[in-house]
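A note from the maintainers: we've had questions about how concatenated examples are separated. There is no special marker in the raw files; a new sequence line simply starts the next protein. For clarity in this README we add a label.
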Amino acid sequence: MAKNWYPVINAETCIECGKCVDKCTHGVYDKGSPQKPVVVYPDGCIDQCHGCGNLCPTGSITYKGEHENPNKNKGRETTMKNLNTTTDCRCNTDCGCNATAAAMEQATKNLLIEWRHLDVDGETCDRCYDTGENLAAEVKRLNRALSPQGIEVKYVEIKLNEDQVAESNGILFNGVPIENILNIEVSQNFCGSCSDLVGKDIYCRTIKFEGNEYEDIPAKAIRQAAHKALGLNVDTPSNSACCTDESDCGCGCGDTPPTKTLTIYDPAMCCSTGLCGVSVDPELLRISAALETLKTCDTKIEVNRYNLTNAPEEFVKNTEVNKLLTDEGVDVLPIIVVDGKIVMTKRYPRNDEFVKLLDITCDCLQGACPTATDDACGCGCETEEPVKDNSCGCDSKKSCC
């Protein structure tokens, strides 16, 4: 295998004929993208192999390292007439395909994931922290799902200093960035958390995935990239191939659609949660905590959150939200939408209101509610009035009305 030799695609001249993807037997290209060539495993390419380049009708393939040692391949004939068309291998070099096919197959069944993030005296920024939490959970789920196939997924943490902050909040799969594997857009926006850590204004990476901009890398994107890097079909996996039952194994085979979808349209904020800076609004802190715990609730809740600063296009896409904003101005925010229906404006739901709106229990928010002898409900109720009803089911002395 080659460390410094792999194909580079000229996207402007490539006609996406798929010949390179179809003929490469070394796992270099994403087989899930049969026409558009995407290099997902550069280390699999054979040193000095020109097989896919010889097949390219538009000459859109060059090779990293081709001109670094011009005498190494002197006298080599790489014309189409010399291609070995009697075997599956078209490397036109002594690659040993037939002898190493089984070993190659096994080698591609090991996945190393690198999580790269800013670290300042043991502290990282909020969005990197969230990415790390998503990644740790997904690695466990992937190993639970894929270990029956002999596939092992590992991840390492790469800590970056402030001079490397442009690389922060990134994930690589066998050395290939997630944006290359999923063919998604990467951009930047202001990160208050990083700025506080470093002591100057910092702009951090964001990704656009399935039409939404994310400051942390969501679990679903990590899962899809892992499957693609391993050459597995993430869209239509086989239950018998990936897990022993139909439980939520992380590969999608047992996934069920969410029972509720919660979308929050926030006012303009400096970051996705509004928790940046010295003075943190306790209400925003409560909402962020509630939304994070909702994501782990056994009752599947899909949670989306947008604010005017980072995702103004989402306000335009929802016609009802756009009309409210036009008619009443920014004072109407936040707007709370459940299953596509606006259920609340101008404030966030109390935790007991989340329970009613999403048809869940208090356990989905902050664990089991305290007993009546406790001072606080633990579900977001703030008033000191006597209990008029038990709307949150916690039997607290405080009112949940």
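[label: protein 2]
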Amino acid sequence: MLTLAITSRAQFNTVSSHVAACRQAETLNTENTSVNQSTIIETDRTTGNAIGALPLRQIYITSDFGERADPFTGKRCRHNGLDLRARYEPAYAMFYGKVIRTGKDRNSGLFVTLQHGNITVSYCHLSQIIVRKGDLVAPGDTVAITGNTGRSTAPHLHITCRYYNDIISPRVLFKYILSVQ
């Protein structure tokens, strides 16, 4: 478990302001490629505190944010997140935050939603939830085990991100985490 040495408010403001600045940034080049990090946790060089962690040890996007063919109907529809290749492996908190919701529904299956200041991140289609509502998390903390629940065709991790009320591509957060190396 990481020690929280900086205030959550400062961390949230840093992430939120960077997300706003990156909304027009070019997309992370992970389509059909894999992103590996020697360590999934990035740290602030001046303090040594964790800043962010990728949600999986290896990022491989299997279905991108935006328009796509629905895997069940074949019709064009909006995909509100990213699908990442994952087979029953740990999913990690990306930033300091709080678990605001856990549950199960027909579409998302088992899910966890984390609040990181003005950003919320939902992890869907899980096989197991590790955290409980109200828990505080740090970057790299295991929050769930990926799976194949809900409206899903195979094991994977679906991530949906909101900045205030706007749905944004999780690529923005991934770019931020990779940029602070």
